[in-house]
Amino acid sequence: MIHSSSPKAILQENLKELILLDELKTQYSDKSASQIPLYRVKSPYPLVYRCPIALQFPDNAVEFAHKIVEQFVEKFGDRHRFSVEIVRSPWIDFRLCDRALADWLQELLRKPLSLPQNNNPSQIDLCQYVHARCLSLLYSAARDQLITLHPLQKCLNWQWQEPQSIPWLDCYCSQLRLQHPTESALIAELVDIGDRAIGKKAENWHKLALQLGDRFLACDRACRIWGQPVELARARLALVAVVQRVLSWILQEKLMVIPWLEC
């Protein structure tokens, strides 16, 4: 559900495409995009990926880094996904733009969910509570006509209907509305899960689900939905919806349990 559109996956594909150009053809040309080194800087906001690819060429690393940046801006700059700069030359930083982050969050709402065939018992009550809490918030907001969900009865395979255009961004400055530190930490956790989903190493999905649950509960305590400007309330509800989608995916696909509707 979340791995195909991961910001890290998109950036790796962009870089793979870039280094296959005649001007930049390198030893990476016969490797998969997933092997291009990318490390997310450990700050919740902004979301930055650091790439040491130029270090593979110590004799002309600085020149190669500048060439990567120049070609990246020329080829992908109009897509407004990442801004790019050289830091501590020749390391390259790719900053995920707020509009691209908003697009990624919204795409997660459109992904279909499927039920697992097994229902093994597991000690994941906190994850289940958070999942049920997300659904409770969403359907309460639907009853209050802040948003529209289909069907009207609570279920796992709901669809977000209104508003179709979610106000993720402030219309005046195109900055993400969700700027509270707990919101930034929660979004960073979602991106981290998306990045881990494309990796080949085994992950402790129970631990990741618990971390996501903890981030959500901190955000739930700090960020009110009701009584806020309608655009902010809807953006926060959309974030709740994304958390529910991702947590439901982990519970079903990775932990093989059916998520709770109520707790």
Give a verbal description of the structure:
This protein has 263 residues and is of the alpha+beta class. The chain has helices spanning 7-19, 61-76, 98-110, 125-143, 181-197, 205-222, 230-254; strands at 39-40, 48-51, 82-87, 91-96, 148-150, 159-162. The chain has a four-stranded antiparallel beta sheet. A hairpin with an 8-residue loop joins β5 (148-150) and β6 (159-162). α4 (125-143) packs across α6 (205-222) and α6 packs antiparallel against α7 (230-254). The longest helix is centred in the C-terminal third of the chain and has 25 residues, at 230-254. The chain is globular and about 60 Å long. The two termini are 25 Å apart. Mean pLDDT is 85; it is low at 115-123.
- The assigned structural class equals alpha+beta
Helix content: 40-55%
Morphology: globular
Unreliable runs: 115-123
User: In order across it, which strands form the biggest sheet?
Assistant: 1-2-4-3
- SSE sequence, one letter per element: HEEHEEHHEEHHH
Distance between the termini: 25 Å
What is this structure's SSE topology?
Elements: H1 7-19, E1 39-40, E2 48-51, H2 61-76, E3 82-87, E4 91-96, H3 98-110, H4 125-143, E5 148-150, E6 159-162, H5 181-197, H6 205-222, H7 230-254
Antiparallel strand pairs: 1-2, 2-4, 3-4, 5-6
Helix pairs in contact: 1-2, 3-7, 4-6, 4-7, 5-6, 6-7
